[in-house]
Amino acid sequence: MMFRYLTAGESHGPSLVGILDGLPAHLKLDVDAINATLRARQGGYGRGGRMKIETDEVEFLAGLRGGETLGSPIAILVRNKDFENVRALMDPLTGGGKMLTNPRPGHTDYAGAMKYRQRDLRNVLERASARETAMRVALGAICAQFLEALGIRTTAHVSQIGEIVAPEIDVVDADATNASDVRCPDAATAQKMIARIDAAKAAGDTLGGTFTVRVTGMPVGIGSNRQPDTRLDGVLAGALMAMQTVKAVEVGAGRDVASLPGSRAHDTFTLDGDKNVTRGSNLAGGIEGGISNGQDLLLRVTVKPIPTLMKALPSVNLHESTVAPASIVRSDVCVVPAASIVGEAMVRLALVAPVLEKFGGDSIDETRENMERAVAAAARLFEPSTV
Question: Strand pairing of 58-62 and 74-79?
Fold first, then answer.
């Protein structure tokens, strides 16, 4: 069965809804863990007032019984509490409220208004808002439990905010990351990041940065080099670029390989004491030729400063054809910590289809058995023939 997902809902509509189609049956879901991931998305230093209003929790509408998936489409809902505060503004029948006419540079306002022929920019920005990522995170948290049942796990941490860059970390402390207000496991750097966010807020400005997603437990052979759209690095990069504010995705060493000669840019092969194949490095980020090579997947993602500033950028009033400041909408100073949670969700969502393509079964047990058989068969591939 083909795996796919959909989300729907506006930032200030009554709720966000999502559908996951293609997960196998008998996967036991921990709903508390899903809600904990939703809370993590709402956290992070530099978030705005909206996060004080919402308390995101997932509600299952279909596809789950007795805490286990049925193999049928999963439908979930996350309610928007802020809807009650702006009900008159968002009434779908009356379209009440003052029109937004001044597009924000860097936002979807202008391009979306032209594409969909909307005179009121709110009809564009409500769906373009990153509030929609709450549903992606919820769906991704479900996918995490599918992947973890196969031994595949994801982590994400912040490595840069503004010009403050954390030192390279080979082994990331997940507890330190989760305890950090900016999701940076290096405590000294985290404090500098917080101070930089405070300075940006005082100046009415916003900050971007980078985060890193790591995937462990990846078997060899996920993805393909047979067609361009099945390459694993392309699938993952496309999923991450589909996030609001993301401007670049790097796999492994990424742009750093541009300055390396070929003799230093690749992960050499060797054998350990048991004659098992090992690698001298992981510059490729766990993907070669569009296929997972058994090493950790490493993805570094660059996030721009969000375009809603309290000191508005220059813009125009589209209705009056006059120069005017951009619209000011309640927003955040820095979304990089929250973006790391969303990015991790996007990686989870992107991995499910190629994993199911390789090992898929109608139940989670069948899928796990298929994976175990495939891994065992691959391990025997180069054994001396006994025939």
Answer: antiparallel
Relative to beta strand 297-303, strand 209-216 is antiparallel
- What token pair was written down for 8? 């729907």
**Amino acid at residue number 92:** P
Q: Tell me which residue range forms the domain holding 335.
A: 4-379
Token couple for 253:
């060493």
Amino acid at 265: A
Three-class DSSP labels, 58-113: EEEEECEECCEECCCCEEEEEECHHHHHCHHHHCCCCCCCCCCCCCCCCCCHHHHH
Contact between 241 and 249 (Cβ < 8 Å)? yes
Whole-angstrom Cα distance, residue 82 to residue 126? 13
Q: Using CA atoms of 220, 223, 225, 226 in order, give the dihedral in degrees to the nearest 10.
A: 120
Task: Compute the radius of gyration of the chain from its Cα atoms.
Answer: 23
Residue 385 lies in a domain: no
- Structure tokens belonging to residue 255: 């742009």
- Any domain includes 118: yes
Candidates 387, 176, 377, 170; CA nearest to 282 is 170
- Residue pLDDT, tens place only, 334-372: 999 999 999 999 999 999 999 999 999 999 999 999 999
Q: Identify whether 292 is part of a domain.
A: yes
Whether 308 maps to a domain, the answer reads: yes
pLDDT digits (tens, 9 = 90+) for 108-165: 999 999 999 999 998 999 899 889 999 999 999 999 999 999 999 999 999 999 999 9
CATH number at residue 184: 3.60.150.10
The residue assigned the tokens 């990686």 is 347
Half-sphere exposure of 87 (CA within 13 A, CB side): 3
Q: 237: part of which helix (H) or strand (E)?
A: helix 232-241
Angle value at C-alpha 112, between 207 and 44, nearest 5 degrees: 25
Sign of the four-CA dihedral 282, 287, 293, 295? positive
pTM for the structure as a whole: 0.93
Going by C-alpha positions, the residue among 193, 128, 113 that lies closest to residue 329 is 128
* Cβ neighbours around 273 below 10 Å, total: 5
Nearest to residue 108, comparing CAs of 92, 89, 129? 129
User: How many angstroms separate the CA atoms of 157 and 211, rounded?
Assistant: 6
